[in-house]
Amino acid sequence: MFLYNVRIGIKSLRRNPILTALLIGAIALGICVSTTFIALRHIFEKDPLPGKSQTMFFVRLDNWDPARAYNAEDPKSLPQMITYRDMRELMKSNIPTHQVGTYRARMFAHPDPKVGRPFAADIRMVFSDFFPMFEIPFQYGSGWDKAADAKPEQVVVIDQAMNQKLFGGGNSVGRSIRLDERDYKVIGVIGAWKPPFRFYDVSQGPAAVEGIFMPFNFTPLLQLNTNGNSDGWKGQAEPTYESFLDSEQTWIEYWAELPTVEKQQAFRDFANNYVRDQKKLGRFQRPLHTEVTSMPDLFKEFQIVPPAIKSMSIVSLLFLIVCSLNLVGLLLGKFLARVPEVSVRRALGASRFQVFWQHVVECELVGIVGGAIGIVLSVGVLQLIAKMMPQNTVHVGLDTEMVLISIFLSLIAGLLAGIYPSWRVCSVAPAMQLKVQ
Amino acid sequence: MLEMKNIKKIYRTDTIETHALEDFSLRVDDGEFVSVMGPSGSGKTTFLNVAGLLDTFDSGTYVLDGNDVSRLSDTQMSRIRNRAIGFVFQSFNLIPDLNVFDNVDVPLRYRGLAASDRKQRIERALDMVGLSSRAKHLPSQLSGGQQQRVAISRVLAGDPKLILADEPTGNLDSLMAREIMDLLDRINAGGTTIVMVTHSPECAVRAQRQIHVLDGRVVDLETPRITLTRAEAGAGIASTLG
After folding, report:
1. DSSP B225
2. To probe the interface with A, which of B12, B110, B152 has the most A CB atoms within 10 Å?
3. Widest CA span of chain B, in angstroms?
4. Within an 8 Å CB–CB cutoff, is residue B83 touching chain A?
5. Interchain pair B110, A353: CB under 8 A
6. Which of B209, B218, B221 is nearest to B35 (CA)?
7. What's the 3-state SS for chain A?
8. Residue B115 carries which DSSP code?
9. Across the strands, what pairs with A293?
10. DSSP β-bridge partners for residue A57
11. Minimal Cα–Cα distance from A172 to chain B, Å?
12. Chain A, nearest residue to B82 by Cα
């Protein structure tokens, strides 16, 4: 019966192409707008590590000025990153399953002159734990090991886009990249991994992931500086690189994977004890305050979803509702013009519900076709938005989950537009119309 | 087959009440062919609508095929309309954008029959009315008589016990009217009960019994006011044809 209703619905929609185009166009417009804004919100709200994000913890310590808080207006505030020396000490803990200190550097990449000109490349400095910790898939090769961390070995991991840019794609494991004045061997090429934004570095604001990953321990060797944020409160330039590394300047993000409640508590105790020890040495003069925050809580605290996008996604849903409600009148007129046919169907044995369902199916056809067009339009609009965004920001697009949400919204829009007209047409007494056809 | 006792049906608007049926009582036996006559507004069509469960009534009882159908839900009434009753209308009431085959298919769809069963029934019904070759035609491509034959085949495909015909020849010329009446005769001969509302004395006398309705009541159950015999009615149609 469902397929029969679909067939009748298609016939009915073909009967008046202009009206049908209007109906479908309105739904398409509503779905395009709502899908675009909900997709933007979805990009930020989507769990980047499903099933694991609750075990990923971002660690902050309050090494700030004893005289005032990190944010002078909020005495509870503390720096978003930690110092190099504190990261080194925290990394000595064996409580986390994995842990990583990380920051963004910048170097000049020198591709083969036949391929392209040198360019400034953002480099993510990480430890070997970074790859298993953030579940990064590899197309070719793998990440490096702890021995390569310790040495450090001159190896890098690159992503697919960088692999394409430098080597034209393919298995480039074993090939070399020249970064500044050194050659680094490609040890792994990241596979299909497109997090919508750089979720492991939220203190810098949402941005796209880097294309090159390098062992952290090159930092002191190459005397690298961060290309991201760096906060300090002493207001004095450090005379040497060594003194910079030993300073109170905060510029490193530190993540620990703590899969159990016991480990989480143990690590909090460890961090607090570390700060207490440092206090004895004259550091950390503010009241004891450490934050070991899970990834979802951190995203909430940092307001990863921009408030404007939250508001626009709600407004876009209201727009879809308005589009649907505008169709009620058109559908009512269309359906009531068909009362004689409905009367015949009722006389031949169609129940009120069957007539109602037949018309709902027709409205849902409008919803689905309009929704499909709306989704395609939305992909185009999102691509346009992506082009308008500065480079290295957010990866914008529709994922499977978002497409399913849009299809669901299309069905709701069709139902919203059609439920009243369908109810009206099925409520007409059949006996009144059979004589006057 | 059909027994109505003291049926009352009132149409109400804000200002007026119209008593369409008033103490309407009628019994039609299995296999009968009954014609119902009366002036316009006498309640013939209202009676047919109530008999066909297309409309409800205010009081009285209605027993159809041994079952009291006075107070049924919409779904129950729809089910009975679909399985036990067939309708033939004056204006044919075919669905314009469905072809002949699909028009005959409509009631069978609501019965939930398998595709093969439906196909068999439709082909047999179209064969009985001589329209097998027109299965793919749209109603607009057929003459009035052919459209009415399609409507009758739609009834035949459902194989109902009772056919309710509302002026089935009202929109047809004499020759086509005769064809349709012949067809109804043949169907009745097969055992199907037929109740036919008509203005035409020629058609009325083709029934075994004529009933006259006036002001919503049955006024004459047995004695036809118009005393044409079946043979005379046939001659009348023949003379019209010249």
Report:
1. S
2. B110
3. 53
4. yes
5. no
6. B209
7. CHHHHHHHHHHHHHHCHHHHHHHHHHHHHHHHHHHHHHHHHHHHHCCCCCCCHHHEEEEEECCCCCCCCCECCECCCCCCCEEHHHHHHHCCCCCCCEEEEEEEEEEEEECCCCCCCCEEEEEEEECCCHHHHCCCCEEEECCCCHHHHHCCCCEEEECHHHHHHHHCCCCCCCCEEEECCEEEEEEEEECCCCCCCCHHHHHHCCCCCCCEEEECCHHHHHCCCCCCCCECCCCCCCCCHHHHHCCCCEEEEEEEECCCHHHHHHHHHHHHHHHHHHHHCCCCCCCCCEEEEEHHHHHHHCCCCCHHHHHHHHHHHHHHHHHHHHHHHHHHHHHHCCHHHHHHHHHCCCCHHHHHHHHHHHHHHHHHHHHHHHHHHHHHHHHHHHHHCCCCCCCCCCCHHHHHHHHHHHHHHHHHHHHHHHHHHHHCCCHHHHCCC
8. H
9. A58
10. A256, A294
11. 60
12. A349
A349 — alpha (psi -120 to 50), left (phi > 0) or beta?
Answer: left
CA gyration radius for chain A? 30
> In terms of CA atoms, which chain A residue is nearest residue B84?
A349
Q: Map residue B184 onto helix, strand or coil.
A: helix
Among B45, B74, B89, whose Cβ lies nearest the Cβ of A351?
B74
Q: Are B169 and B184 in contact (CB under 8 A)?
A: no
CA distance readout (Å), B209 to A140, B128, B177, B194 = 92, 25, 19, 11
Strand partners, B61: B5
Using only the alpha carbons of chain B, give its radius of gyration.
18
Residue B34 near residue B207, CB atoms below 8 Å: yes
Find, in chain A, the residue whose alpha carbon is nearest to that of B92.
A437
Tokens of B85: 């009753």
| pLDDT tens per residue across all 437 residues of chain A | 889 999 999 999 998 999 999 999 999 999 999 999 999 888 878 888 888 999 999 999 999 999 899 988 888 899 999 999 999 999 999 999 999 999 999 999 999 888 889 999 999 999 999 999 999 999 999 999 999 999 999 999 999 989 999 998 899 999 999 999 899 999 999 998 877 777 888 776 666 678 999 999 999 999 999 988 888 888 777 889 999 999 999 999 999 999 999 999 999 999 999 999 999 999 999 999 999 999 999 988 888 777 888 899 999 999 999 999 999 999 999 999 988 899 999 999 999 999 999 999 999 999 999 999 999 999 999 888 877 766 556 667 788 889 999 999 999 999 999 999 999 999 887 776 676 44
Take residue B175 and report the two structure tokens written for it: 């020759």
B78 vs A341, A344, A351: nearest CB: A351
CB contact at 8 A, A228 and A201: yes
Residues in A closer than 8 angstroms to B160, CB to CB, are: none
Q: In whole angstroms, what is the distance from residue B194 CA to residue B227 CA?
A: 21
Least Cα distance to B218 among B70, B3, B69 occurs for B3
d(CA A65, CA A377): 52
Residues of A in contact with B96 (CB under 8 A): 341
Interface test with A, best of B44, B45, B98, B109 (most A CBs within 10 A): B109
Residue B203 banded pLDDT, cuts 50, 70, 90: confident
Record the tokens describing residue B41, joined without a space.
């507004």
Take residue A114 and report the two structure tokens written for it: 């036949």
Does residue B87 belong to the interface with chain A, where contact is any CB pair within 8 Å? yes
Cα A26 to Cα A32: distance, rounded to the nearest angstrom: 10
